[in-house]
Write a structure and sequence with these properties.
mainly beta, five-stranded mixed β-sheet, five-stranded antiparallel β-sheet, 14% helix
């Protein structure tokens, strides 16, 4: 009887081992982290081109994907090479050895090398410059390389008249820094939630965990008949986004800040709501 029990136990153990091995063999491969491999610009300055996605996911074959806004969605238009094969200077001089970047808007588009954060590719002048040369005038905590996750370049009226302003985000701490262009005037010490909650926004509570965002971009559009900047936060792990719009003009009654933002998403939404031809599965 004892030998039979031992035999049954051994058989059960072998079945368990084989079962576990089969599960391990058939398990789906771990999803590649695309952070730093995909970045989005918020301006192109080119006819029939509304937005670029820089895709570094294929080693030694970086691409610039062109999108055009059509009927409320960004639709894929063209795939262009980055590096020597390009005919456009900014793309021809692209630092092809860089494998992970983030985009910080400053006049046009500045790409920070995540592996060497002191290096910035100035897309407008097609050259590599130092982080300090762009962001050295920011408050001490914000000029440290790695602090800024991304941001938006805003052409808007704030208190006085139209100017080129910027808003930078640190999604880890969920903070933002507002920079009034040309004047080095900063609004600091606030959370992203402070933008979308009343009285600055339309929400009683903020339902979004902004720390999930891997990249940030913005674009000009209209909302409820007003000219606005739409700021979009993308989670590349789930291919979802969260977004709010910001009025370009101060409210004539309530001033610059009250009711300035409107949260558009109360949860993370599929990025396919915004894009046709999104490069990731």
């Amino acid at each position: 009887m004892t030998k039979q029990l031992i035999s049954l136990a051994l058989i059960g153990l072998m079945v368990l081992i084989l079962s576990c091995s089969k599960k391990k063999d058939t398990a789906e491969p771990e999803k590649e982290d695309m952070t730093g491999k995909i970045v989005i610009t918020d301006r192109t300055y080119a006819a029939n081109e509304d937005l670029y996605i820089f895709n570094l996911s294929v080693k030694n074959d970086p691409k610039k994907l062109v999108f055009k806004m059509t009927n409320g969605k960004f639709k894929f238009s063209a795939s262009l090479p980055l590096g020597a094969a390009s005919s456009f200077k900014a793309d021809k001089n692209w630092p092809t050895s860089w494998t992970s970047v983030r985009m910080i808007p400053e006049f046009q588009s500045e790409f920070v090398n995540n592996d060497k954060p002191e290096e910035v590719y100035d897309y407008h002048y097609s050259t590599i410059r130092t982080y300090e040369s762009f962001f050295g005038n920011l408050p001490p905590a914000w000029k440290v390389p790695g602090k800024i996750s991304g941001g938006a370049s805003l052409y808007e009226a704030y208190i006085v008249n139209y100017s080129n302003n910027s808003i930078y985000f640190d999604v880890r701490s969920q903070q933002y820094l507002y920079v009034k262009g040309g004047a080095n005037q900063f609004i600091d010490g606030y959370k992203i939630s402070d933008l979308v909650k009343k009285p600055n926004g339309n929400m009683d509570a903020d339902p979004i965990d902004w720390s999930k965002a891997d990249l940030i971009f913005s674009f000009n559009t209209t909302y409820n008949g007003k000219d606005v900047s739409q700021i979009v936060f993308v989670d590349l792990n789930t291919n979802t986004y969260a977004s709010f719009v910001r009025n370009k003009l101060d409210d004539p009654v309530n001033g610059a800040d009250k009711g300035r933002q409107t949260l558009l998403t109360t949860q993370w939404e599929p990025v396919s709501n915004l894009f046709e031809g999104w490069p990731l599965n």
